[in-house]
Design a protein that fits this description.
Elements lengths: L9 H12 L9 E2 L5 E2 L5 H23 L2 E4 L9 E4 L6 E4 L39
Antiparallel strand pairs: 1-2, 3-4, 4-5
Helix pairs in contact: 1-2
């Protein structure tokens, strides 16, 4: 499959390569319990977004390794970013924050938040791993 993203950015390209090379299916049915009962996800964008984060974690880790970065996952749900790459021997970080939303039809507009204006966008250390200036 040809890269659908028209970019020369090596980070985006490597993440795309890793996502495309994943051996498992990206089709998920729901949550399964020990009795093999499957509970559908429904249309909650937070649940669907978290499922994508779980599925993408391996590809991001592999991309970081290929690029010579250190892959880190944020252990706190409400702190920016979801994942980040640390550049060895520097204080520089590359934020990877996964955003999801939904549309009711292909012609409907959609919206999602890019982050809280009252957090790290105004205060470089609030609700963020490290300091905003390091990204």
């Amino acid at each position: 499959m040809e890269n659908p993203i028209n970019t020369k950015d090596p980070i985006i390209e490597q993440i795309t390569i890793q996502l495309e090379s994943m051996k498992y299916s990206w089709n998920f049915a729901g949550l399964i319990n020990f009795n093999n009962t499957i509970y559908p996800f429904g249309n909650d964008s937070k649940i669907i977004g978290h499922i994508f984060e779980i599925a993408a974690r391996e590809a991001l880790s592999m991309a970081a390794q290929k690029l010579g970065y250190i892959f880190q996952e944020n252990p706190t749900q409400t702190v920016y970013p979801d994942f980040y790459f640390a550049i060895p021997n520097t204080d520089k970080l590359i934020a990877i924050d996964i955003k999801t939303t939904y549309r009711q039809s292909s012609s409907a507009s959609f919206k999602f938040t890019a982050g809280s204006f009252t957090s790290y966008l105004r205060n470089g250390t609030k609700n963020i791993v490290g300091h905003y200036d390091n990204y």
